[in-house]
Amino acid sequence: MAEQDPSAPTLFDIGTLTPTAPAFMDLEDPNYAYMFGFLQADGHLARGTGRKGRLSAEINARDIHILHEFQRMTPYYSSVTERVRTTNFAEQHHSATWTLCALEARTIVNALGIPYGKKSRIIKPPRVDFSRPDYVRGVIDADGSLGWTSEGIPFLSFTSASTAVAAYLCHYAKKITGAERIARRNNRDQVYVITYYKEQAQQLAEHLYYPDCLGLDHKKANAASIQTWVRPAGMRFAPPRRRWTESDDRELLRLGDPAAAATALDRTEQSCSMRLWRLRTGQTHMPAQ
Predict the structure, then answer these.
(1) How many other CB atoms sit within 10 Å of the CB of residue 80?
(2) What is the distance between the alpha carbons of residues 72 and 171, in angstroms, rounded to a whole number?
(3) What is the percent of the chain where pLDDT is above 70?
């Protein structure tokens, strides 16, 4: 058995994440938080025979710079390779792959929340302290998109098969924009696709893609580009939607009159009328008494 390099990082207590943990994957560090979010969304942790295995991420070769950053940040041997192959989407797809095999490193990322094998539905935000905007930016760089719609409207969206990640991203984005989104799987792919437009997209992009942050160059450029959008004169501004609470529903049913409920609940009469109809016809569940 080869003698261990005394300068190599030592395995820390995975269960407690003690202060003696090595710098690798300290999620309070913005760069590691970004790297973890990116790998959790777009990486793959595979087992091999015995103690073998690997953590890898394959992306378009235009973004190879981010894989070199991962390589630089990793205190274990890792490699970055390129290949050109035929896919369902292109005859000549040029990709780059970052690969890390060290068991100690794999143990660390596995304990933090990157499972072995298929993971898209079961990943969750870290349970340790982490740099939130950087983790979210990592997820969006891996599985999101931002830029301009065909109508010239700025947008920012993210896609996830994980209920926990989708719910967290909705919760986090609400803190930044005030816009509420309800995570629901789409019918086609059974994944969550959450999208923000106009000022909300600008606010999120400015918050997540701050100056000199680690990220994909083309998405950082898009984040800067959409800040130039100005709402055209005459374009209606829709304020964030207010969700109906059980307390609101009980008061609406008690009053039974949309006009009176509009005054009591500070809502429009049309909104109260529609909600009352939905409650009475069973299209919305009755509130608990």
Answers:
(1) 14
(2) 32
(3) 90
Distance CA 68, CA 81 (A): 10
Among residues 140, 146, 211, 210, which one has the least CA distance to residue 169?
140
Average pLDDT, the chain: 88
Q: Give residue for tokens 């580009």.
A: 225
- Are 90 and 16 in contact by the 8 Å Cβ rule? The answer is no
Q: What is the dihedral of CA 13, 17, 19, 22, to 10 degrees?
A: 70
| Tokens, residue 115 | 């499972």
Dihedral (C-alpha) 67, 68, 72, 73: value to the nearest 10 degrees? -20
User: What number of helices (H) and strands (E) belong to the chain?
Assistant: 10, 7
Under 8 Å between Cβ of 208 and 173: no
Residue position matching structure tokens 């006009």 = 259
The continuous run of DSSP H or E covering 198 comes out as helix 198-208
Cβ contact 175:145 at 8 Å: no
Nearest to 165 by CA among 108, 122, 111: 122
Higher pLDDT, 146 or 269: 146
Q: Name the maximum alpha-carbon separation found in the chain.
A: 81
User: Residue 171 CA to chain centroid, in angstroms?
Assistant: 11
